[in-house]
Design goal:
Shape: globular
Largest sheet: 2 strands, antiparallel
Order of helices and strands: HHHEHHHEHHHHHHHH
Number of helices: 14
Protein name: YedE-related selenium metabolism membrane protein
InterPro entries: Seleno_YedE, Sulf_transp_TsuA/YedE
Pfam family, one: Sulf_transp
Keywords: Membrane, Transmembrane, Transmembrane helix
Number of domains: 1
Organism: Helicobacter ganmani
Length: 353
Amino acid sequence: MRLAIWPILAGIALGILAPVLVYFGNPGNMGMCAACFTRDIAGALNLHQAGIVQYIRPEVIGLILGALLASFLFREFRPRVGSAPIVRFGLGIFAMIGALVFLGCPWRMWLRLSAGDWTAIAGVFGLIFGILIGIFFLKRGFSLGRNRPASKIVGFVFPLFALGLLGLLFWGLTGENTPIKFSTKGPGSMHAPLIISLVAGLFLGIIFQKSRFCMIAAVRDTILMRDTHILQGVIALVVAAFITNLALGFFNPGFSGQPIAHNDTLWNFLGMALAGIAFTLAGGCPGRQIILSGEGDGDAAVFVLGLLVGAAFAHNFGLASSPAGIGANAPMAVLVGFIFCLLVAVFAREKRS
């Protein structure tokens, strides 16, 4: 088996930097989480009113701008758009709802596991189950259509949005007549220093763009094409994170008392299963979609906006979980999400000439 240098480097980088960010102040087992951090941004922008999860995370800004920089460095900046934007938006909404029922994106799932959080095991099986459902439909012709080249301004829209978030972050930090909300307690109030977070995000954005690092691709490519390049990166992530957590004293094995996690096995499985099928149909995990949006992919940008709105729905309508358990309305939302994803998977076909 040929070693995949870039994905392995990406996995090692995430596995080391995420616990280090926790050491500098990020929430436990949440040094880097595309879903949770997008949820925090939604709260800071007043899209939801959950006071404990509101903060404009510099890591997300860094991921987008790092991907933009890398796409120029490696001559891969290709503004493009595709088809079915409303479907991609809906997939983003339900992917976020599923992730917040589990309490984390696939990145955080592996980071939780590497720190001894055994409640994440159900999420691993759920994610793989969801991806397998998506692969079943991919083999039978599922497609949201091909993308096509677009003008450069299309490619710059989301990076400009990231710069806008950076400006709002500085404005919010001033605390003077600002509508931006930042948590004073809870996970949203826990964050590494701004410069450290931003630089870490920029670095990961660059290496993720070059490596095509994606949790969904790791499973999908291994099954469909017997290509283990990305899977090697995921393995490297788990090993590096485990070693780093041990070194920093963060390894705490068990099912109870884990930071920002619940021990409802069924809903950990189902939440991540919903996220898995939505990510697979959309073409990548939330981290990968954020990176793609930075390199000019308009489809990915629509999906990320769906994540942002999904986070608002999750906290405004009692769908998101907490350490106490799942939200009151989560079961119905997950059921609706599965129905939506399956309808899309059954009826979306690429027209052949």
